[in-house]
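Field notebook, page 281. I keep forgetting to write these up properly, so this time I am using the form the group agreed on. The chain and the ligand, magnesium ion, are recorded exactly as supplied. Prediction of the bound pose follows.
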Amino acid sequence: DQAVARGVRWMRYTADMEKESAWRLGLATELDQAMAAGDIWVAYQPKLDIGAARITAAEALVRWRHPERGMIPPDAFIPALEESGRIADLTLFVLERALADREAWAAAGAPLAVAVNLSALLPSDPAFVLRLEAVLRRHRDAVPHLTLEVTESAAMTDPERAVEALHRLAALGVALSIDDYGTGQSTLSYLKRLPAREIKIDKSFVLTLEKSRSDQAMVRSTIELAHELGFKVVAEGVETEAVLRMLSGFGCDTAQGWHIGRPVPADELLARIAPKRAAAG
Ligand code: C2E
Ligand code: MG
Ligand code: MG
Ligand code: MG
């Protein structure tokens, strides 16, 4: 009977969902072991300064190669780490790695800036901010070359609290960037109250730029207004030369995406950048 069949399907479905979500939450208990074993590592995606036609920075993107499950995308395990209170530990692991890799690049003749992603909850977590401060004290020279990317939603959940928290981070000397701009409800005039000087236009607007006139209008006018308000603009998700040209025409400052470079291990990024620097003298 159909109703029974539907019921059985539904039960199987919810059982699978429960198994999946239990497994995801369980990931948090494997975090320390995974960090120690090298299963969690950091990939870097280059950021192209469009005007200078040069790679000037790289974004750290965390990777987890699970011994049984293979590669787990960050969107799958970061929420679990947030829920279980382990996200600060992961973030500081990524940050330490990124600062060490940046130091190695600089020593090898590729003085790139580096960006690290911060979960929405972290800027207003006092314990995290204290630990962050301690890390930055140990890497004083790196601080002027470090950007923290916070999502637009982080800035919006509790605007008053976010403004305060982000000012505290900025006071440590790091640059702040608003990630995934355009996916939330914030206006540039609200973001203007934050100590961020960069916005990253979400890839959902950039991927379709060639075909979508409305995305072109949105991206062009966002860039213009952002510039008037004193923000630099990064476009993420640049997959083609045509989109890069279009963004260049709009006056976009920085581009990131598969067309420029996929996220790769630190030494691969260096191998790509350093020979060019050496050749240019
Ligand atoms: P995000 O910071 O907005 O990073 C951009 C995402 O777009 C990355 O996915 C990147 O690999 C992907 N991407 C870059 N260029 C292209 C492109 O041309 N086309 C397409 N289709 N995609 C592109 P990824 O690495 O899976 O990361 C997803 C999200 O996970 C990140 O979004 C960020 O919010 C979060 N994340 C990554 N690493 C960390 C971390 O260390 N800490 C925290 N809290 N979040 C992280
Ligand atoms: Mg980011
Ligand atoms: Mg983004
Ligand atoms: Mg994102």
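OBSERVATIONS:
- The first helix runs from residue 2 to 27.
- Residues 59, 117, 149, 179 surround magnesium ion (ligand 2) (CB under 6 Å).
FOLLOW-UP: compare against the apo run.
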